[in-house]
Design a protein that fits this description.
With 418 residues, this protein is α/β, with parallel strands linked by helices. Helix content is 41%, strand content 16%.
Length: 418
């Protein structure tokens, strides 16, 4: 059959497809020896799961709530009662001057970004092309293939080495070029894959750069404030009219509900509602209904800060200790500063083999990671650094994380030996 451009783009091999395929096969086969360090699935925190189980039981016991949750469509913008609770929650928490017209509920942030990116960027009706700029890469693997046309561009970071085996990326503002073709700048905070948290000062700089250009600044808070708050440093939440914030329920322990909230100008929300009606008819009810009472009681903030944040910070420290224990300290390896999210980002400077080959070798030994080359959306220039990095998650069982890092250390040693 004749292949369409859409089919050619969305059915070819991609980083996110490879990641989810590896994850799905490993989970399905349930090999007890597999170290699943590749995916972004949140840990099953018993206290958190119990809380959501209790809430689900209350919903089931209330015939009206249950019937409404599973039997009724919402509007394309989402359940108004939940949106009202979400707006009051943000107003109380951060003082944001927003209304229900500034919020939409979507069926996952992945779908939300697909809609948002293609709303703002791509081929225009007057034969120009609008673009999305990632002011710093590495960035989230799931962004890379979402454009209906090739409209992503990005800038590589400044690299600061910290001590013997740590480093941190910084935005290179001197090299950042924001022109009239750029309709939005986009950052995740904290960043997937590196755990980097750009500073409050840098957020303000990016917001002003975008505003002066008539553009938007998009911030993906999938791991950030105010929930799930997998942040190991204090941050402020900035809201201005030219900003777009995305929030996800996945990392608070509800990835299966595929639910996100997006906060933006009224114009953006109206347009996204129109697109959502065409693509999805309406947004799902289960995730929003599960957290409605948590929003109203402000328990979502308590859940994040008292249960989720300390849980992941403890696991991050353990994972870093395993690198200290198993890696050969004479090798030029560096781990990015762990400031949030679920991941560690390993840089193997001047590695003799590329890290896709390392990924294949690790997979044969039952360790699933993600090679770094997929995390540089929009950066098309040659850069050896892209093939010197891997991402691994520390959200799974501690014994498996330790076993995986021990095997990684062994294979890294062999690789440098070549």
């Amino acid at each position: 059959m004749n292949t369409t451009k859409f089919a050619a783009k969305f059915t070819e091999k991609s980083g996110i497809l490879e990641l989810m395929d590896d994850l799905g096969k490993a989970m399905k086969n349930a090999n007890p020896n597999t170290c699943m360090l590749g995916g972004g699935n949140p840990a099953h925190i018993p206290e958190v799961q119990q809380l959501f189980q209790n809430e689900m039981q209350e919903i089931i016991a209330d015939q009206k709530r249950f019937n409404s949750m599973i039997g009724n469509y919402t509007t394309p913008q989402g359940d108004l009662e939940v949106i009202q609770a979400f707006v009051k929650y943000l107003q109380k928490l951060s003082g944001w001057k927003i209304s229900t017209n500034n919020v939409i509920i979507l069926n996952s942030s992945q779908l939300g970004f697909f809609m948002l990116f293609n709303l703002l960027a791509g081929d225009t009706i007057d034969n120009k092309q609008n673009k999305i700029l990632f002011p710093i890469v590495p960035e989230y693997i799931g962004y890379a293939d979402q454009g209906l046309s090739d409209f992503f561009i990005s800038e590589k970071p400044l690299i600061e080495k910290l001590g013997e085996h740590h480093f941190k990326y910084h935005i290179n503002f001197e090299m950042l070029k924001v022109d009239q073709d750029i309709k939005a700048l986009c950052v995740s905070r904290p960043t997937n894959p590196t755990g980097n948290v750009i500073s409050d000062e840098d957020v303000v700089k990016l917001q002003k750069l975008a505003k002066n250009n008539g553009s938007y600044l998009i911030i993906d808070n999938a791991y950030g404030a105010p929930f799930p708050n997998i942040l190991f440093k204090e941050t402020e939440m900035l809201w201005e009219e030219n900003m777009i914030h995305s929030f996800s329920l996945s990392k608070i322990g509800l990835p299966g509900t595929r639910t996100s909230f997006l906060v933006a100008s009224e114009e953006i929300i109206q347009k996204l509602s129109s697109i959502n009606a065409i693509l999805s008819l309406a947004s799902n009810n289960i995730g929003p209904e599960l957290i409605k009472n948590l929003l109203i009681k402000n328990d979502l903030n308590t859940l994040s800060k008292e249960l989720i944040t300390p849980f992941y910070q403890k696991k991050s420290r353990k994972a870093l200790s395993y690198f200290e224990k198993y890696m050969d300290h004479n090798l030029p390896y560096y781990v990015h500063e762990s400031e949030g999210a679920l991941f560690l980002w390993l840089w193997l400077e001047n590695f003799p083999i590329n890290t896709y080959e390392l990924y294949e070798r690790l997979k044969k030994r039952g360790v699933i990671v993600v090679p770094g080359k997929y995390f540089f959306p929009g950066y098309k220039s040659p850069w050896q650094h892209k093939d010197e990095c891997i991402r691994l998650t520390y959200s799974q069982d501690d014994a498996k994380v330790e076993q995986g890092i021990r095997i990684i250390a062994e294979e890294v040693g062999k690789g440098y030996g070549e």
